[in-house]
Amino acid sequence: VFGDGATTVLKMKDGTIINTGQNMIDLRPDVDMEHILLKDMVLDMNGQNMPGWPGGSAWEQSHTLRYAGVSGQTTTLLEYDNITIRNRIADGMNNQGLGQVKDWKITNCSADRVRLYTRSDIQQSKLVENLTITGFTGESIESEPATSSPSSLATVTITGCNVERIDAYGPGIVDRALCEYHISNTVVAEQFTGGQAKIFATGCKLKIA
Asked: What angle do CA 17, 142, 126 make, to 5 degrees?
């Protein structure tokens, strides 16, 4: 799916989100995919104009751009290039579900600081084999501890990013050798936390929580 950059704006209509689990774009492949690419567009979830929000974490699973393959499904390359996230409700970009992603690339994307609920701009709920984030500007990048261990080494590479927060975690203490973070030339202004993984940082300015 290709846009024309800042002039291509996909925006949710006022009042259309009424419950958790309603995502703006929901990628749910049920067959193996070689390449999924979204490029050059603005995704505006319009969170401030959803009057049904009851407050707090009630809509914490209503994401702007979610990937959730079905059990047994594999995507070789999931790629987001020059995507701007605005007015999110929960996560901006989220990977979850039962399927497997080999490579997830996020390049030259950004997010504003406007949201209903404090989740993350980029959320890796399920570890992929290789996650590469380059040139991202926004509030937060997070990996939640996965519910199951990866079958092979999971690698997260973060380069040239400027964010307020990074939470860098692997699946568990006993599996920490199976998850590595390589972070370079990146600024984390408010809070960097990590654990259950090997973390390598070079040329960074990280505020350790």
From this structure: 80
